[in-house]
Amino acid sequence: MDSLYDASSDSICRVAEEVRVCKRCRLSEYRSNAVPGEGADSAKLMFIGEAPGRTEDMLARPFVGSAGKVLDHALARAGIDRASVYITNIVKCRPPMNRRPRRDEIHSCMQYVMREIMLVDPKVVCLLGRTAHDTLLHGSFREHRSRYVKHGGRLFFTTYHPAYVIYNNKLREIFVSDIISIKMLLMSND
Ligand code: URA
Ligand code: SF4
Fold first, then answer.
1. Ligand 2 center to 23 CA (angstroms)
2. Atom 4, ligand 2: which residue's CA is nearest?
3. 137: in domain
4. How would you write 32-48 as a 3-class SS string?
5. What is residue 5's predicted lDDT score, i.e. its pLDDT?
6. What residue numbers bound the domain in which 69 lies?
7. Is the distance from the beta carbon of residue 91 to the nearest atom of ligand 2 less than 6 Å?
8. Which of 50, 88, 135 to mutate to test the pocket of ligand 1 (most atoms within 8 A of CB)?
9. Domain holding 92: CATH number?
10. What total number of domains does the chain contain?
11. pLDDT digits over 149-187, tens only?
12. For site-directed labelling of 17, which of 60, 61, 69, 92 has its Cα 20 to 30 A away?
């Protein structure tokens, strides 16, 4: 994104339309559907994952497969309505065999997530896992996990990727308590 970006002439709808037909990187060749972000377009809380998985690629919606269930469960435990948040990914097309997105793919796709952040303008951006963390923040995932970092005038919170905690009760509890702690912060700011 350059400094000439003008959010007043852009919109979340427009980002989604561009994503659906995007061919800026090789991931377009493998997808069934590109997966734009979804949710409230002026949400106070935004979640950013890594990349769509198989279910997301089929349904063209983010976090609707097994990782999505973990996220939904954590949102429910925190008393957060999924429709009140905005959920997106670093890359919008599923990498083949669910491999990690490559650096050049992330680079090609990054303008979309940057526009989503500026347009939604959330109070807190929650980074789900290492790919989202390492793409948007400097420093180490390990040091930032379960913590807030202010970057570019915006508050970022880093936690595990929900797919990473699926089979580990201890990590899943940490994940849930992280989401609850974000909810508490947002309530105290209201
Ligand atoms: N994992 C992600 O990072 N994003 C999704 O949308 C689904 C699974
Ligand atoms: Fe475009 Fe991003 Fe999909 Fe690549 S991953 S084709 S940059 S939407």
1. 6
2. 25
3. yes
4. CCCCCCEECCCCCEEEE
5. 87
6. 10-188
7. yes
8. 50
9. 3.40.470.10
10. 1
11. 999 999 999 999 999 999 999 999 999 999 999 999 999
12. 69
